Amino acid sequence: MVLVGAAAIMLNGCHKPSHAEAKQHAEQRWNEVRAGVKLQLARQQYDGGLFDDVVRTVSESIALDSTRPESYVLLAQANLELSKPASTEQAIEAARRAGLDSADLHYMRGVILEQRNDLRAAVGEYGRARTMNAENVDYLVAHAECLVALDRPVEALALLDENRNRFDEDGTVAVLAGRIAVLLGDWEDAAARLGQAAVALSDSRVVAEELGLLFVRAGRCAEAVALLRPLLDDAGVSEGGAARRGLATCYLDRGDPASAKEVLIDYSRLRPDDGPDLETVRVFDVVCH
């Protein structure tokens, strides 16, 4: 029994860290805590647009704890905002050398590659980001937009359709799908898709205008007028010529040239220094003759 007890004591003694090891572990834990605090501060600085401060603060965080992929991502994002592409790439490469991997790191690599016009490689990085996290709509949108830039809109639209049910409350996917449908020349499909987006983004004037103009192209003037007229009536909305031309076209198609003329003359009154383009002149000619 004495021998067994002695052996147990010896074994426990073997596993007990030395004072130096305990001190080192304590310092490491403290550095991790400090790094987390600095990372949180850097995020707040980023939200406030203080990108130079972000670079400094997050660099201090990485010096204390180099095992957090999100720190390198934030450093890259801040440098990107500062128009420093070389520093952005260095941040991502530093993460790679540290053996780190994450969906956000692949996404940022894709952004860098896309800025360098290496679209094929960017598509690959966006695809890897989506593989690691399929619930992030930014990855999906970037992947689809890059496919469109590669002149692969059909593939991009199929990708969006395959993943649209992941984002029930987000109209971003429907908006992009509608715009791609426009590129493919399918006005009815585009209008249907933007109609879905308008439900999810009911407060978005941009989506309402896009949908209204698509209804104009599709000859669905009753729906176009219902969307475009309130935009022009709102005092806070820019007096955009595209919406006014679309509205005037629909008034003409409905046999109401007086309303068409009023819409265009009102634009001329509000923007006297804005010379009308050829399409506006054409509509004016139709109205006046």
How would you sum up this structure, described in words?
By secondary structure, the protein is mainly alpha-helical. The chain has 16 helices and no strands. The mean pLDDT is 83.
Blueprint (SSEs and pairs):
Blueprint lengths: L1 H14 L3 H29 L3 H14 L4 H13 L3 H13 L5 H13 L3 H14 L4 H13 L3 H11 L8 H12 L3 H14 L4 H13 L3 H13 L7 H13 L3 H14 L7 H11 L1
Helix pairs in contact: 2-3, 3-4, 4-5, 5-6, 6-7, 7-8, 8-9, 8-10, 9-10, 10-11, 11-12, 12-13, 12-14, 13-14, 14-15, 14-16, 15-16
Low-confidence segments, ≥5 residues, pLDDT <50?
none
- Mean pLDDT across every amino acid position: 83
Helix content: over 70%
Cα-atom radius of gyration: 29 Å
Alpha-carbon distance between the two ends: 115 Å
SSE order: HHHHHHHHHHHHHHHH
Number of strands: 0
Measured by DSSP, the beta-strand proportion falls in: under 5%
Task: Give the class from helix and strand content and strand pairing.
Answer: mainly alpha
Report the total helices: 16
What would you call the shape? elongated
Report the sheet with the most strands, covering strand number, pairing sense and barrel closure: none
Quickly describe the structure.
The chain is mainly α and 289 residues long.
Keywords:
single chain; mainly alpha; 289 residues; 16 helices
